[in-house]
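Batch manifest line 471
LIGAND: zinc ion
JOB: complex structure
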Amino acid sequence: MPMRLHDTLTRRLRMVAPLEEGHVRLYTCGPTVYARAHVGNFRTFLFEDILRRWLERRFARVTHVMNLTDVDDKIIRQAAAAGHGLHAETAPFIDAFYEDLRTLNIRPAQHFPRATEYIEEMVALIERLEEAGVAYRSAGSVYYRVAGFPHYGRLSGARAEGLVAGAGGRVDADEYDKEDVRDFALWKAVGADEIGWDTRLGRGRPGWHIECSAMSMALLGESFDLHCGGVDNIFPHHENEIAQSEAATGRQFVQIWCHSAHLRIGGEKMAKSMDNFATVPDLVASGARPSALRYMLAAAAHYRKPVNYSDESLHAATESVDRLADFDARVRGYPPRAGENEARVERIAEARSEFGAAMDDDLNLPGAMGTVFSLIRVLNRELDDGELDSASYSALVGFLDEVDDVLGVMELVANERTGNSLSEEDRALLDLRRVARERREWSESDHLREVLADRGIVVEDTGEGQRWRRL
Ligand code: AMP
Ligand code: ZN
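JOB STATUS: finished
ARTIFACT:
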């Protein structure tokens, strides 16, 4: 069965059919690095990680790009207040972000482009928009002319129209420089003493939306497969990205737009501005296990439904993870007996195919896990009064490997249970080796295996990628 995803633009389930045969190109909007990301942000990043992992099972190749927004008004204000440059301001938050990705076992994107490194691409894109007649200069800044793009509002529908209706309400500081209230800044003029770049557009700094259009097209091409973010990205961010990219190229920017619902706390969206947020290290320090956090954020509800953060939901996730890990340990520790229990092999195969069908059906991970837990219930009973035939053993181990290739919790559980967590350096070496294997650089990957062995870490290559254990 082909894999389908809900497309926000057409409001339909659409088949994932990469424009380039066998190669999915995926862009996900990353964090604005003015503070440590909170677990609400990580709900979205975990949805994207599950998506990436499932795509990697279904297609030969996935190229994943996640931007880091390392320039915006808040970052500039903070840097100015601290009396240092942008880089000094954002570097600790970028490091913290990578550390949280590792804590939650999120696969790193192949590219993490930073906005400040793509100023030239943004300037060139803005120039193309000027040539196309959809950008204009005013008081030193450059704005996008929404009236010049007939498809504006297709992604967000009513929300973009609401902006027109509500135009009388809120007036931005730059309101008087714009032709139309809907227009947005592509390039903002700044004074000589402010942080900015001297470019062909004059001295200024980029608007937020242009960075994602410029970086995604630079790294993935003018037309690519999937673009994701949280629902709050739909308007205005993604609506504006479409307007910018399509007006410049005349081509369809993205095949499928996917958006995940929010993490809430006490019924409200978790947000930095609401002061109701918690970070990954906050929660780990208060006793949350990373495996349970990962499970709660990624698998407790379908990605298009909100999740409420609470002690109970974390507790339920902890139980689910333990049930899975206990079963996994039990199966792998069982001495298999030669033979084949046909009915059991058949049941495992059915569960595996239901798991895949649920994942293919708009990434229904909670449904897929329901199938896994039903199988666990039945088999736990059977294992109490019997033995495991070798055919079922192989089928089960294969299935459990597949489940965890998507869910990504077993390694976290193993570390939690043994206190055996990896050092930063070991983790970095494993990441390097994974990338070397993806690039088929076999001598480099063999070399890294030896380096890791010298550090007491044995790496094995399985059909599901590399696994490590201590010597
Ligand atoms: P930001 O750093 O604000 O640009 O957000 C980074 C990503 O986190 C975006 O894709 C947002 O849509 C997403 N996000 C922000 N708050 C939440 C939340 N409470 N739940 C889920 N995703 C969120
Ligand atoms: Zn973006």
